Amino acid sequence: CAWLLIALGAVHTLLTIPAYDQLTPRAVWFAGTGLMMVFLGLLNLIARRTADPGARRLCQAADLLGFSFGVLSVIAIPDPQALLGLGLLLGLLAGAFGPAPRIEQVREDPG
C-alpha cells in the first residue's frame, strides 16, 4: 500500500500544474495533499524496516491522522480517486497496527 500511496500522491501533486493556471491557496492545498500522501507512504516504508518501537508509534499516529483526513476528504469529495486514497490509507493503518515486522539482522553502514 505504501508504494501505491506514494504513486497516487505523486500523480496528485503533478496534476496541480494542469488543474490550476496560477499559484493560489487552492493550488497549494491541492499540491500539499499530494505531498502528504507521498510523505506518509515514505514514513511507512521506513517504519516497516526498523526495529525502533518509537518509529512504529510515530507511524501509527501519522496513519491515524492520514486516515482521518481521508475520511473527511471522501465526505467532502466523494469521487473515485478519493475512495481509492481512503482504501490505501486504510491498508497502511491496518499494516501499522498489525504485527511488528521481524528484523532478523540490522546492518550498520560501514561508511
The tally of helices reads 5
Q: How many beta-strand runs?
A: 0
Largest sheet: none
Helical residues, percent: over 70%
Instruction: Give the uncertain stretches in residue-range form.
Output: none
Radius of gyration from CA coordinates: 16 Å
Beta strand %:
under 5%
Class derived from helix and strand content: mainly alpha
Distance separating the two termini: 32 Å
Average pLDDT confidence is 88
Shape verdict: elongated
Order of helices and strands: HHHHH
What does the model show?
- The structure is a single chain.
- This protein has five helices and no strands.
- With 111 residues, it is an all-alpha fold.
- Helix 1 runs antiparallel to helix 3, helix 3 runs antiparallel to helix 4 and helix 4 packs antiparallel against helix 5.
- The chain is elongated, with a radius of gyration of 16 Å.
Task: Give a short overview.
This protein is an all-alpha fold and 111 residues long. It contains 5 helices and no strands.
What labels would you give this structure?
single chain, 111 residues, mainly alpha, 5 helices, 0% strand
Task: Give the SSE map.
Elements: H1 2-14, H2 16-19, H3 25-47, H4 53-76, H5 80-97
Helix pairs in contact: 1-3, 1-5, 3-4, 4-5
